[in-house]
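Data availability (excerpt). The following record was deposited with the supplementary files.
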Amino acid sequence: MGRPATLLEGLCEHAFSLGADALQVEYKDSHEWVFAQKAGIGIGIAQYRSSGADAKELRTNLYAAAKKPVRAVLGGTLCLLEVRVFDSFGEDAFEVSIRPAPKLDPFRPPKFTTKQGQYLAYIYHYGKIHRVAPAESDLQQYFQVSPPSVHEMIKTLERNGLIERTPGMARSIRLLVAPEHLPRLA
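Predicted structure:
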């Protein structure tokens, strides 16, 4: 099963929907204040009491993302969330840059698991035969798995930059892996 979206990803999704390209989180008056940054202007979008569970989760997400950038699908766009930690009046503050993730190099085989490769191969062959992308129910029937399992796999493939989807549009899966890099469908 895939991972659930973090509080940081949810805040970045909201900021991205406002056209922001960054997020800033600062501590002030016993609260964590969250600002969407657009053209250098901060727009307050959330605040959490510093002692609360949400603020603790957010700080955990931010410190983890400062060590390793996070790939997240925001508004149908695969983005890279990179965190910079800086000092603000003796407290850690955070700046999160939100930018589109680089596309796959079509000449290099991408990395994916055996199971992910089977899903990608199925999507490719289904599209060749039916001239339309498979629905999640088609994947569920072929792989004999539950609807949540298929949905999580689709989200994982999208987050890893192996497929693209159009939000709210049925059968919109678009394969981003060159056919020569796909395994044989078992």
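Summary of structural features: The mean pLDDT is 91.
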